[in-house]
Design brief:
Four copies of one chain form a homotetramer.
Chain A: E1 2-11, H1 16-26, E2 30-39, E3 44-53, H2 60-75, E4 78-83, E5 89-94, H3 99-109, E6 116-122, H4 128-133, E7 138-140, H5 148-161, E8 166-169, H6 178-183, E9 188-192, H7 204-211, E10 215-222, E11 232-239, H8 246-269, E12 273-276, E13 279-282
Parallel strand pairs in A: 5-6, 5-8, 6-7, 8-9
Antiparallel strand pairs in A: 1-3, 1-4, 2-3, 9-10, 10-11, 12-13
Helix pairs in contact in A: 1-2, 3-8
């Protein structure tokens, strides 16, 4: 059996679901998962389908061509189609913090993530030994305000060389350049160590401590031009109390950062997220 | 616009979704919500649909008849269809505990529950004043092992008189008779004050305390012949610690009981639950 | 047995705990609960004690006098002492939303709250019937920008008349005047329907929806001159998704508001909160 | 400054706290943390203290001797005293599952755990490469019913050789022998992949799936002679729904197992747990 995943969004119209499901039936496919959502305010329709086809009739090209002609053109759909075999290629950007890196590489090695990690890129050498432990190519690309352009160029070269599909900033503490954002629109995932939109920017645990909150959080989001303002993929929280110090907040927060980033990576790699109007539809 | 909700389950087969959505389209209806699930082990298909029809063409009888002929018969479907106007009638069974009763009546009075409460039935007189505060008929139906048959008869009479659709046991501490269970199969909701299947039966907070658990729970489920063994609708938990006494467990548990029961009532009244193989499918 | 609760805070110094516990021992008292906290940044010591004394030697006045002389004066302590019998008197301020009011009155009637509610004050007549259901005096005190002074005067008269110890704003949507805040410093509890400091001010559910957050929250805090900036007592959260509308956010949020406000009321009434530097120490 | 932690438990008596805090004051120590608990049913007093002493007067032996004479003997205390420098030595027992092992070694390498891991012991060779990646000695000790005695002997030899203080079973799927349990009473931590006491024994995710629960859990506990019946240290849960398969349960559960085990390890290594009557007091 061949298994494919289809993502669709378009203006909401009558009979979309009937047309898509008829199409799958006409191709002798079996729907094993279907989820849909209508944004009533914006009048946009979203759909995610998983289907199985028996291998002998299977032809991905004709499936795609007919989808374009019979569905996408008349309904003016934006759509993507993925086979189960294609594993997306993910680049890890890191800096000096190692806890998210260890967590991702542990999950990756344990076979929990449906993706490949061809490269780790960092603006410091510190985490190189970890990359070596896990036998993943590590590239040191210095990056500061002064050498932004050289840095970006080196990054883009590496991303092209390793055929990277999406990027994860695992506590990478540098600004991403507009060029890179434009090339990987809705394909760069950041983890921010607060419950956004509370405490954007630097030192959120310090701000949370000062404000005396009873709950701290972490947020994974797609990177956009606005700092910590991109579409939110996943959030989670942990209880804190007066008895914890800032250092305790930071330590508790590490577990949030690990978990929330790992979930976002998995959702993206499994094609379960769609972005619209600076928000995400997450079919989980 | 007329709004209806359709629940379907049947053996999993090809083209069910296409057929149902074609049918809705053929009736000029608009699907505003669709959720489906396939139990791969049992090969059963479940579906919940919300559709809108413009009022002028609207004819519920023909919609139902054609559904039966065109879909239910060929696919051997079990199905239910509800209009938004019909509010299900719920009977409350209580005993001496008042916290769930106050919570449900508060929500009901605040307009949060899409249902009617025509009657409260109790084996004690204690909570009658609360029913009076909220102007809901209260009937005292004594019930013990010795007078089980008279009790059941009186209950059935009241349920028929008030045209009751489903029953909620809001900490009603008596056994429900097999006759009543059979008449209201998957329509009697109980709240059990533990995280089932841990601590079934009497005094679960005492057992939880003795075992030294770090988390307590509450479980709402449909009542079946097996004590605390029916299909689970909803569960939730709260953290506890060594510093809490049994009385603290009980007090903390009251919030769980209130919330978990209120959620189950709402899910049932909105036709979001389906039962199969002693489990629930909850389309929430 | 007589049971008392003592709250202390003062500059951190050596031997405070030894001195206080010696004092209790010297009075033949038995410590049944002791919790303490040191704010290392501010060098402030906080303590909460529950003690039992056998009734025959019991003399509250001498206990207080000796505490003042032997401990409070040498250590420059701020302190409070409460007997278990004194129940604090709470005034409820409401407007048009009824869900928190129903919840508090239900808990109160069910005997869950160690306090008295002598009066409900509102700027509208809408919720008067609910107060009547629960047999609690209801006073309509109109309040708008234009008649702020008359409103405040009427409020202060009622609070004095009913000997009110603390005030709860159960979704009371009006500004509290500086005079009232000053008279009830750290004794006015508000519930804000967001996860502060995210979304302060009006319509937080709408802002949360627009931002596409995956978690919503509620926050109870003491009222200060800054809008939604007072010391946080308690917070909680609930998961949301793209499939929920603003109305769904509001409905889900009602459960958060109820719970978070009820917990804050209970903590305050049990003398488990202390305020320092716009933060709370909560000994729970 | 020298920092020590003291754990005490004894029969509840008057003036214990005063006596202990006086003692610390007499030694010119400063209490930076104090937590206590009285088990009212069993009449047992528990206490955990962190104190600082200025280095020049510091003498651990005299501190311990005087504690024994002045406090432990008269009050019949069980007590332990730890300096901050001593890091407990932890042995990891693993089998074939690698996710908890990766997580623990990642945290260990990232400097989050106040302990040393001198050895990993396994009944299979599978995870040896992971131990090598992290440069930790790995010993293969075959263990089956038939060779229980040789296995136990080899384990005990290794534990002695590496001077092990406590043992963590990171999804080690074999029975621990009574001898080993007796030698490491309340010093062997297991992670069980259910919300105990629900679903003890083998295949808890399968049982949870079959029962149709809406929440799954994980439990860390000290190992005793009764299978999955030891004192619970920590538990946590995750929501599941009808749409998840058994494989999804297992995958979701891995995050619970990782987190709950990591927290238990940290609590134990920081001397924050005490065991009494098959329950834990956790001063966190």
């Amino acid at each position: 059996m061949q298994k494919i995943t289809i993502l669709i969004h378009c203006e909401d119209q009558k009979a979309i679901i009937a047309s898509v499901t008829n199409y799958i039936a006409s191709k002798d496919g079996n729907i094993i998962y279907l989820d849909q959502h209508v944004d009533a305010d914006e009048n946009v329709f979203f759909m995610r389908l998983e289907c199985e086809f028996s291998a002998k009739n299977w032809n991905l090209e004709s499936l795609k061509n007919d989808f374009e002609t019979q569905l996408a053109t008349p309904f003016k759909m934006f759509w993507e189609m993925y086979t189960q075999e294609e594993k997306p290629k993910m680049a890890l950007f890191v800096s000096k913090y190692d806890h998210c890196l260890y967590d991702i590489l542990g999950r990756y090695s344990a076979g929990e993530l449906p993706l490949e990690i061809p490269v780790i890129i960092s603006n410091h050498e510190d985490l190189k030994p970890i990359a070596e432990r896990f036998s993943i190519p590590f590239h040191h690309v210095p990056f500061t305000k002064e050498i932004k352009e050289e840095g970006e160029l080196a990054q883009l070269d590496l991303l092209q060389h390793y055929k990277i599909d999406f990027i994860v900033l695992a506590r990478y503490m540098q600004i991403i350049t507009p060029n890179l954002i434009a090339k990987y629109r809705n394909k760069i995932i950041n983890i921010h160590h607060s419950f956004l939109p509370a405490f954007p920017g630097a030192k959120p645990y310090h701000s949370a401590f000062k404000r005396g909150v009873k709950i701290i959080g972490a947020t994974s989001h797609y990177v956009t031009e606005g700092l910590d303002e991109g579409p939110i993929i996943e959030q989670d929280i942990a209880r804190v109390s007066h008895s914890l110090s800032i250092e305790d907040f930071i330590m508790k927060g590490r577990d949030l950062e690990r978990l929330v980033l790992a979930r976002a990576i998995k959702l993206h790699a499994e094609h379960k997220t769609m972005v619209y109007d600076n928000k995400t539809v997450v079919f989980s």
